[in-house]
Specification:
The structure is a single chain. This protein is about 40% helix and about 30% strand. The protein has about 230 residues and is an alpha+beta fold. Strands 1, 2, 3, 4, 5 and 6 form a six-stranded antiparallel β-sheet that branches. A hairpin with a 5-residue loop joins strand 3 and strand 4 (about 100-125). The radius of gyration is 21 Å and the shape is globular.
């Protein structure tokens, strides 16, 4: 094949993929706007570079550089303020010849303001490297439920707090729910994955956070409000 024809074909393929990607992004934005409207939330597709400053306690929002939220949906659910959004950050690598490559990362998250002074707690699906960590002695918090401990990796500097939040009813709820990485920190709770959500994933993430918060024992909520 002639070099000119090769480059022309390559350029045509790139253009086609770019057009398809643009169409998919537009279709997704419309679906997210519809979900936000169904919830009575606002919807803003533009870049918001202040999200990491508003929630500095969440490390997932402070990775890399060129950080910004987009497709931001905000409102109130069950009496709690909610922010739901897609998120971008960039990392960089350099090869042996000194050529620098930028890697763009995208994921989605839902943050719910609880109005309570929460202690740090992380709950996520247990992975292969977590199991290796257990073998090496870097253990997470285990619970009476073998099934829950096998399925979830739980970390907190306060074990009693972890057991107060994750009691039997909450364990059963999380086992029956879609999997998200969950964190309680400061006065907020976040649910996210390392990829962008479908509209129904935003709904599911919101329901998972609400399910955990609604199951906080009454004595614990009173104790937290007393400290506030």
């Amino acid at each position: 094949m002639e070099p000119f024809l090769f480059f022309a074909l390559a350029a045509a393929v790139i253009i086609v993929f770019a057009v398809l990607a643009h169409q998919q992004a537009k279709k997704r934005r419309m679906a997210l706007a519809a979900w936000a409207a169904s919830r009575g939330f606002s919807f803003d597709p533009t870049h918001d570079s202040q999200m990491d400053d508003r929630y500095p306690e969440f490390k997932c929002l402070r990775q890399g550089d060129n950080r910004y939220a987009y497709n931001v949906m905000a409102g109130n659910a069950g009496g709690r303020p909610v922010s739901a959004f897609d998120y971008h950050y960039a990392t960089h690598s350099t090869d042996s010849k000194g050529h620098r490559t930028t890697h763009n990362h995208h994921f989605s998250a839902v943050i719910v303001a609880t109005g309570l002074p929460l202690k740090p707690l992380a709950i996520r699906k247990e992975g292969f490297f977590d199991k290796i960590g257990e073998f090496l002695g870097f253990d997470d918090i285990d619970f009476e439920s073998t099934e829950f401990s096998r399925e979830f990796y739980v970390k907190s500097p306060d074990r009693r707090w972890a057991f107060d939040v994750i009691h039997q009813e909450t364990m059963e709820f999380l086992l029956a729910s879609p999997r998200f990485a969950l964190e309680l920190q400061g006065s907020d709770a976040i649910a996210y994955r390392d990829r962008t959500f479908k509209p129904e994933d935003f709904e599911a993430a919101l329901e998972v956070i609400a399910g955990v918060l609604d199951r906080l024992p009454e004595y614990l909520v009173k104790e937290l409000k007393g400290k506030d």
